[in-house]
Model the fold of this input.
Amino acid sequence: MNKKKKKILDKQKAILDAALAILSEKGFHGTSTAEISKKAGVASGTLFHYFKTKEELINVLYYEVKKSIGYALNNDLESVTSIKSKLKHYFMRMIEWGLENPQKFIFLNYFDYSPYINAITQEEAYKYYNLFIETVEDAIKEEILKDVPLDFMISYMSNQTRVTTQFILNNPEMDVDMLKKISYEMSWDSIKG
Done:
């Protein structure tokens, strides 16, 4: 990689990192592009050179965060064979990802259902979830999970992991492994076919 391309990528990364830090703390309306530029160590004009609007910046950041979860979900999946084991793997990995990436987790809580995330970004980001979605779909077809609409089941499972992750982040003195286990068991009882 030449120096010019590396410099561009470094500036983009600095802007995205600054946006993540501020947006996860203050949300969309509480965050200005001037504040993001200052934290990134770039001029406001530089931010707008890479991202035409604040909405575009948020969409790029959203895509990168969703991609990060997708990679985490599929990590170490090759050793997991049964559908039920895969579902547990996904459940635990979602929680672990949130605990390992609290700023990204908080950002998603702000923006997962936000009108600022456009349909194209959502569609592209969800490509990283294909294996998860296929596993849930197969589990419903094989009556391992309740026969409910696929989108509902995915939302339900995702929100169970969010509640657990947020609870653990708010209560770091509690036994994380115990909470993950209890959460999984409670969730499994509510979704199994």
